[in-house]
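My current task is to audit a protein record that another person submitted. I need someone to confirm that the token line plausibly describes how this chain folds. Take the sequence as given and treat only the tokens as open to question. This is what I was given:
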Amino acid sequence: MVAATRLHGLYAVTDEALDGGLIAAAAEALAAGVRILQYRDKSDDSQRRKMEAIVLRALSRRHDALLIVNDDPALAQAVEADGVHLGRDDTDIAEARRLLGPRAIIGVSCYDSLELGRSAAAAGADYIAFGSVYPSPTKPDAVYAPLGLLTAAKRELGIPVCAIGGINPDNAGPVLAAGADMLAVISGIFSAPDIEQAVRAFPLFR
């Protein structure tokens, strides 16, 4: 299991809307101080996805950052990523662990459900994610996860807690105060006109 001390801070999730600019944008975010990067691409272009993931793996190593692959344990294994993030309809934790090994990071989306968090923790997840904590421009129909859920999960489950959904430098403070170890951010970083400035504006860097 990964040391929990690495599972904290700003967790940048790549934006599929970046298209050809994804690599450059990720490189800028990592150079600005992001230490956890999730590669998220739901397309079926397996060749491009693998090529991008390989480049992102090299970039993350250069900046001593973790690379997490969204939804695809096989791709995570192929590019030697640090781990995988699983959603409700993805591979189960046991299968991901079997494929990736005991040192891999396995994160699980728990949406607005503490019960899902309990199940994920019991099954060996390294961290759990709740959201959307604020209205999300990326997922406008996402369920709402109250900040009190982060506090309850942190108090009860004893593993790192990630918050996602509509988080930006102006509203991040209450999320951290509620107990979030990681702030997962998509548009708050990758839709910004200046990615470096956006990263450094988060309370984690003040």
